[in-house]
Design brief:
CATH architecture of the largest domain: Orthogonal Bundle
Distance between the termini: 45 Å
Helix content: 40-55%
Radius of gyration: 18 Å
Strand content: 5-15%
Shape: globular
Strand order of the largest sheet: 1-3-2
Order of helices and strands: HHHEHEE
Number of domains: 2
Number of strands: 3
């Protein structure tokens, strides 16, 4: 295997082709999963995205942690936890930073912060 791996070096950027293909496959599977969960969560996604747009307009930014508090407050959770990954999909959401997740079970994991930009096309 070592010789095969040595033959598979991408000389343009020095990255291992197997590693690059694995990353590409991982990204593809992530996006396919978000597509599937989006199709099965239309009502919930519309509802939570409405709150996301409102929070972003009021504060200038929003995170998944903000939206989880909203969902908990209204006792409205998605049918599948992966639906959270589809909330900020679309060209109108701009990644603007990172913050630690305040939920204790998240162990201060870093989450993205987003801003809704109305002028962007979906």
């Amino acid at each position: 295997m070592g010789q095969m791996k040595n033959l598979a070096i991408d000389l343009r950027n020095g990255r291992d082709v197997f590693e690059r293909l694995g990353l590409e496959e991982g990204v593809k599977r992530r996006e396919e999963g978000k597509d599937r969960v989006s199709e099965n969560s239309d009502d919930w996604l519309s509802w939570i995205r409405g709150h996301a747009v409102t929070i972003s307009a009021e504060r200038g930014q929003v995170s998944a942690g903000d939206l989880r508090r909203v969902a908990d407050m209204f006792n409205r959770q998605p049918h599948h936890p992966n639906a959270w990954g589809a909330v900020f999909r679309g060209k109108h959401w701009k990644h603007v930073g990172y913050i630690p997740n305040a939920k204790p079970s998240a162990h201060a994991r870093i989450v993205r912060v987003w801003r809704y930009e109305e002028g962007q096309n979906q």
